[in-house]
Amino acid sequence: QTYAPKLILLDISDISCIRDVAKEILNCYGCVDILINNASMKVKGAVQSISLELDKKIMDANYFGPITLTKAILPNMISRRTGQIVLINSIQGKIGIPFRAAYAASKHAAVGFFDCLRAEMEEFGVSVSTVNPTFICSYHRPPAPGNWEASIWK
């Protein structure tokens, strides 16, 4: 069956709205066959120059965002005993490089979560995959003066 596309805006770092968006999707279509977690934020800077607030924002976008969305969609896949979940992650989820501590930490956490999820979902027929590309060309948001997000890439 073919469905008309529906555009739903979602800030993956805003954890509070993810469950409502998932409900909206499930109410509209009844199920999700394939969930591709592809949103990400990265920051470049020395550990001592990145604020804890920014560390948390990166962790929200790269770890808590994808797992919150996945957990919201997962019961539907389990009950139907089918579905596919894909995490587009980063090679930095496997190795760390200088000046990327917050990003690498969030990507390591995501790899750990989705590796465990893969093992747990086998009995339910839900496939879980993680893709760790070496480099993804992102866009950089131009910083506003005094903007703490100046070094964020999306």
UniProtKB/TrEMBL annotation:
Q: What's in the keyword line of the UniProt record? A: NAD, NADP, Oxidoreductase, Signal
Q: Which Gene3D superfamilies match?
A: NAD(P)-binding Rossmann-like Domain
- Alphabetized GO MF terms: oxidoreductase activity, acting on the CH-OH group of donors, NAD or NADP as acceptor
Tree of life domain? Eukaryota
> Which GO biological process categories is it annotated with?
intracellular calcium ion homeostasis
Q: Which InterPro entries match?
A: NAD(P)-bd_dom_sf, Sc_DH/Rdtase_CS, SDR_fam, SDR_family_member_7C
> What PROSITE patterns has UniProt attached to this entry?
ADH_SHORT
A Pfam family cross-referenced in the UniProt record is adh_short
Q: Which family does it belong to?
A: Belongs to the short-chain dehydrogenases/reductases (SDR) family.
Indicate what this protein is called per its UniProt record. Answer: Dehydrogenase/reductase SDR family member 7C
